[in-house]
Amino acid sequence: MRVRAGLRDAVRRPGPSQTRRRRGPTPATSGAPSPTGGGARLAETGALGTTPVVADAAAAPVVAGGGIVPALRRRAAHRSHRPRRPGRPAPLGRPGACGAPLTLVGMTARAAPLPHSRHRPSGRTPVVGTVTRGTTNPNRLRRMDRWIAATHGAELRRAEDPLAIDLGYGAAPWTAVELLGRLRTVAPHARVVGIEIEPERVAAARPYERDGLAFRHGGFEIPVAGRPLLVRAANVLRQYDEDQVAAVWERLCARLAPAGARSRGGLLVEGTCDEIGRRHVWVALGPEGPRTVTFATRLGSLERPSDLAERLPKALIHRNVPGEPVHAFLRDFDRAWAAAAPYASYGARQRWLRAVRDLRADWPVSDSPARWRQGEVTVAWGALAPRG
Ligand SMILES: C[S@@+](CC[C@H](N)C(=O)[O-])C[C@H]1O[C@@H](n2cnc3c(N)ncnc32)[C@H](O)[C@@H]1O
Q: How far is CA 207 from CA 177, 189, 210, 214, 295, in A?
């Protein structure tokens, strides 16, 4: 599969700072997710922590090389011998249940099965995933929505059926309602389907259905007809294990609209933000695999760029350690930010612009000052992908 191949290729290509610079290490920022902060207006509802959906052997999707149930059993046995503390990175090259390494890059679908699944009573496609905390907030995903509208708007506008999925919208449907509004400013025929794995959250959202907006019960299988042009999964994978990410990406990328003569195909945007959306980091993937990583922040509240480390997506959060490209990137970004301190007298935006310009000399920054001005910077995935 090209997603995994892309990940492996990225590993063989070290980030520039890995090869060119050897300055003192910067302490890694904690990867622990923060609890719901004071800004959260919505109490968490439903189950706290991850509640596995009952795995049903008959319902389990076929997973390459042995199927999900044997793989889950092997993995459970493996874990019972070697418990992993929450938030602790999986050691590089740790042998997987089937002999393959259980790292993000090296893992195979066999070593890292998709999350549990179960049959729907109606006998339709099994739901794939686990119920997790439903924390959400109005306007929380504005930075991601704006970026999607700016970078993917033309694709959506050209499409015959510009279908977007808000996967795992949470305990209230705000993010799906807002996504529709923002997409329609660039693609008036866009429609959004919110998909949630927790049935009560679907029932709670249904009254908000309207022209162009629907809600469905489901998971990573994405139970809609056709291939979406956009799948947005914000703050969903953060609550899964790191070693499940590649398999989930692979599955979601396979559901995207394919590339064509006039189209790069659908886009999967998967990432994490704080409770009120001031700090946000996401990975964008196409049908061919991961493309870019975007860092987005409210500049006025930023002390240094590595403040964003605590919002790295699951694929990167445990990799903010010396020797990993994302750590080197944040270290260099902090240095560029420090060097740009004189620009602070013109405002945080000018300082950010200067720092990103400097950063561009060593890192494959793929966007332009128009996006930097929004407090964003986008970098090619290959430069930040985990090693090994
Ligand atoms: C923390 S909330 C995020 C809500 C919203 N996306 C946001 O960023 O504010 C995560 C939600 O994802 C849902 N979820 C987790 N795994 C899922 C899956 N495989 N398919 C659909 N929803 C899922 C959980 O039930 C939960 O409601």
A: 12, 21, 8, 10, 34
Q: H or E stretch including 375? A: none
Is residue 232 in contact with ligand 1, taking CB distance under 6 Å?
no
Contacts of 125 (CB under 8 A, 6+ apart): 218, 221, 223
Q: From CA 176, how far away is CA 342, in angstroms rounded?
A: 41
Compute the distance from residue 238 Cα to the ligand 1 centre, in Å: 9
Cα separation, 152 vs 133, in Å, equals: 29
CA 79 to ligand 1 centroid distance, Å: 25
Quick: pLDDT tens for 205-258.
999 999 999 999 999 999 999 999 999 999 999 999 999 999 999 999 999 999
> Which residue puts its alpha carbon closest to atom 13 of ligand 1?
168
CB 243 within 8 A of CB 107: yes
Euclidean distance between CA atoms 254 and 1, whole angstroms: 9
117 lines ligand 1 (CB under 6 A): no
Closest by CA position to 16, among listed 373, 388, 366, 363: 363
CB 145 within 8 A of CB 186: no
User: Which pTM value belongs to this model?
Assistant: 0.76
Contacts of the segment 260-265: beta carbons below 8 A, 24+ positions apart = 262/158, 263/155, 263/158, 263/159, 264/155
